[in-house]
Amino acid sequence: MNSVPGRRTRILAATTAAVGLLLVAGCSSGNGGGKSSAKGVPLVKAGQLTTCTHLPYPPFQSEIDGKVQGFDVSLIDLVAGDLGVKQTIVDTPFENFKTGAFLNSGQCDLAAAGMTITEERKKNVDFSDPYFDATQAVLVDKKSGINSLADVKSKGKKLGAQAQTTGEEYATKQGFDPISFESSDAVLNGLRTGQVQAVVIDYPVVQGWLKDKANADAFKVVDNLNTGEQYGFTVKKGNTKLLAAINKAIKEAKADGTYKKLYEKWIGPYSAAAASPSAS
User: Fold this and answer.
1) Distance of CA 80 to CAs 38, 212, 217, 265, Å?
2) Tens of pLDDT along 203-253?
3) Are 165 and 205 in contact (CB under 8 A)?
4) Which residues, in sequence order, are CB contacts of 5 under 8 Å at separation 6+?
5) Which residues are CB-neighbours of 96 under 8 A, at least 6 positions away?
6) pLDDT tens-digit map of 12-69
7) What is the Cα Rg of the chain in Å?
8) pLDDT at residue number 18
């Protein structure tokens, strides 16, 4: 999931208003404001690890049965557990992840949003070690006659992508002017309702969406674009202690089998390659 700075986009879904405190992966045990720490790691609120995200983005984070859950949520729960606190999740506009605005203002300790590591973003935030290798999928309506990304253009079909993401950036670099949607759910709904006939979107999102038989009956993946993307969690620049705690949790989860279990629960079949990302 990622960014195209300064590009005009046509947002078809409602833009996320203000910052909404959402449900949690467990209730916060702290009740005070102000800075605190857990095991020497500074926290913006006592007794909790506050995570900024952008909802919904299944299978990484989305609201299920009144609770925010997903692969990212589960991994950060491991960090919170190591620190002896609970994770609290704040839903924020995705464009703020590029600038680190909510980290710098002290509203969140870290950001977890299926976010691709890029050199541009590294100017504003510090990334954890990569925790996930990502590819982009081209998903189409089976009735569209589209069998590749090239077909979208040659057959005069409409292409959609999520605004401010690497999927949108990739499509733009390929000469498309994709219709922009505010969230991954809005992208898929745009495909479902015929606003577009094809979308470029992160493959893990497609994997989860196609588990629904009705979706699988009507839509198909025609291209898998290996863009070399890796996801990372972010912290405010210079927050080395929290960064070390995140990297430690990722490393230990891969070593003891927890990562594999979470991957299979939220994403799908696991292979050794899935655990291969090295430090960025």
Assistant:
1) 9, 32, 40, 20
2) 888 888 888 899 999 999 999 888 888 999 999 999 999 999 999 999 999
3) no
4) 98, 120
5) 52, 102
6) 333 333 334 344 443 333 333 346 889 999 999 999 999 999 998 888 999 999 999 9
7) 19
8) 35
Tokens of 241: 């202690």
